[in-house]
Every structure is written in structure tokens, then in C-alpha cells.
Amino acid sequence: MSNQTQQNINRRELLFQAGAGFGGIALNALMAQQAQSAAIPDRKSLSPLASKQTHFPATAKSVIFLFMEGGPSHIDLFDPKPELQKLAGKPLPESFKKPITAMGEVNSPLLASKRKWKQHGEAGTWVSDWLPHTATCVDDIAVLRGCWTNGINHAGGVCQMNTCIPLAGRPSLGSWVTYGLGTENESLPAFVVIQDNNGTVVNGPRNWGTAFIPAVYQGTRLNTGKTPISNLYRPEDIFPTQEAGKLDLLAKLNQRHAASRKQQSELDARIESYELAFRMQAAAPEAVDLSQETKETQELYGMDQKETKVYGTNCLLARRMVERGVRFVQLYNGAGSKWDSHSSIEKRHASLCKGMDKCVAGLLKDLKQRGLLDSTLVVWGGEFGRTPMSEKGDGRDHNPTGFTMWMAGGGVKGGQTIGGTDELGLYAVEDRMHVRDIHTSIYHLLGLNNLKLEYRHKGSPERPTLNEGEFMKKLVTG
Hints:
The chain is an alpha/beta fold. About 35% of the residues lie in helices and about 15% in strands. InterPro entries: Alkaline_phosphatase_core_sf (IPR017850), DUF1501 (IPR010869), TAT_signal (IPR006311).
């Protein structure tokens, strides 16, 4: 064998041995990592957002709350009143208790509904011609006609629908759910809020805030438009290891700062938000990438039409979020109290219904065909309804004493109408559901007992519905 051949053999042996050495280094690192994992508790179990046990078996795993901000008119959408048509133009009958209205127009004449009504589905649920697409889904919907609240204006009404009381200072529905159940995907926010425009929802972030419970459970607002999540992507000149190192250092500094300020949960929430943002860089781009959806799916949500593109996009994002384990998604429609039709209700409501109806129906149909409706509770409604009395001749005032909401999926028996208002639609009179009962029913379907879901604040037990509220059993029994 020549010296040159011997040299080639030695080179091969050297490479083989070096390769084996590198493998040994990787193996040693892996074994060390496994040993470290065995010595330290699972990180997920340490997270305040880790998935938690329910109080009893749940029928729903997640919630999509379709919030029509401003107060949609129940007597023009889901609650037809023949008597209102007969008495149109006359004052409220003396047999009725005089209501307190936001604008004080209690003596205004009654305003007839101009809607055409039909019964739909096997159960014959009444729906007006403003909602032709939702009408095709009524066999999956339980219409709740006996709702009522205390909030007479938008600030109080929106606050109560989100927190159970019309005054500030209580955690939001979504934050209580997140506190009680955690999340099934720690690479995405547990509680997501999306508006349909850049307007300001009454009360702003307080609607998805946490008040006295830790701030880590607050909602994360996503953007409307092409980039739902701002500053998501890492600059190309920054490597993941560099970013991880910076975050580790930042976390240590923040933890040191927070150690002496334990009463300020916002500091822990900020630390968690940085860590979540890092994890989201891997998971979120895929979650918000709607190009993965088929053309047929996008058309189902109305994304191919100008009027329905925005809310349809938000509804599709909501489906993708719950599909990936997000616990609570709240979609505001008409952000900035656009549903508030004190005048020109025909024009205002017609436009809003056209921009929302197909999107909502598309969401229900898509969830159902994917097998997600069984585990996803969809809630539709605003902070209150509208009065049968007119305002400014062609509008309706706020009506907190009687209005309609609906629920679908998550164990709810569809094709039924629960409760009712009087013959003019002013007061809830049958199977009445206060906001506390609505929230209690949502918690119940998620497997949470509203009286056992508790947070200690200043030594006192705080519960989401202030020790009140009853589950509407007809939602599941019919």
C-alpha cells in the first residue's frame, strides 16, 4: 500500500472518529437536558395559563362571543310583535309601567317594524328579512328573548355585559374564563379580542381587563386588517438565540424588579407577555395565515364581498383560534356603538345586518362541518335592545328591560326559543335572564360553577357573578 493510500485511509478514519465525537457531544447535551427536565417541574405546570380541570364535565371547551356594540333591535330581528303594528303611532298604553329611557322619550308614539317575518327551520323560529343567512342556521340556535340588564346607557350596558355590573372595577367574562380554565395552546393568547374597525369600543380595554385578578388573564386585542398581530416577525438580522438571550436577561431583570412589588400583577403579566410573544413567533404566523383556507371557505364567510370582508375575516380568524386551543374569542361588530340607532334605524340596521349576517352564518356552518360546533359555544348579542317607542320619528331608544340574545353549539340544544317579552317588546316577562344568568350559563356550559370560581381579593372571596345567577337549564334540555 502506498504512502498516499495510507494517508487517505487515515483521513477517513479521522473524519469518522470526529463525526462520532460530535454525535457524542450532542448525545451528552441531550442527556443533560433530560436530566435537567427531570429535576425541574414541567414548565407548563408552572404557567398561570396552564390548562385546568373543570368543576364538572363541560359541554363546551371555548367561547366565541359575537358582540353587537350599540344595541341591536330585537323587535326588528328575532322578536316579532303584531300588537306593535296595530298600535303604531299611538302612545304606550297606560297599562304599561313607564320605563326610564336614556333619552327620556317615554311619551313618543310607538314605531312599527317594517320588517317581513318568516318562520325557519324545523322548529319554526321567527327571524326577520334582515338576517336571511342566520335564518338558515336556526336549528342550531337557541334564541333567548327574555334578556334584561341594568345598564341604561352604553357605558353601563357594555360594562355589565362584559363584567356583570354596570360600574367599573370587575374582571371581564373572558378573563374569568381564562383564570378558571387556562388555555390549551400556550403559544397563542388564551383570550383574544378583535374589532371590526378602528373605532373605540365604549369603555375601551376595560371590557377585556382583569381588574383585581392577575393581569396575565386579560384579553389580547388583535388588529383589523392584513396584519392581525403587530411586530410579530423577528428582524432578519436577529438570530433566535440572540433574541432568546435578550429575553432571558430581560426576564431576570423584570423578576428582580417584581420581587419587591408582588401586589402589581401587571409586572408578571408583562414578563409573561414577552415570553408569549417569543413563542408566538413560531405559532402565530400559521394561525393567522388565511391563505391556507380554500376559496370556498373564504366565500362562505363573505370575504369575497366588500360589505362582509372585514367581519368575515374576523369570524374566520376566530374559528382558526378556537381550532388551535384559544379559550375565549370576542368579536366586536359595529365598534364605536354603530348599532345605536336613535334615528334612521332602517338605514343603520340594514347596513350593519348586511355586513354581519353572512359572516356569522358562515362561522356556524364552518364550525359545524368541521365538528367544532359541539365544543365551541357561540354567543350573539349586544348590551341591550331597542324600545318599541320611536325616537326622532324613525329611530329607537335603548331598551335594557327586554331584549334578545342567542347561543349555539357547546352543548346548547338548537331550534328553540326561550323566554319572551310583552306584546310590545318592552319588558322581559317569561324565562327572564339577567346578565348574571347569561354569564352563569356560559360558565356552566364550560364546566365552571360560578359560585366555586373564586379569587381572594383583600381577604374576601370574589366570584364572577357576585354570588348570583342561575343556569338556564332549557339551553340543554329544550
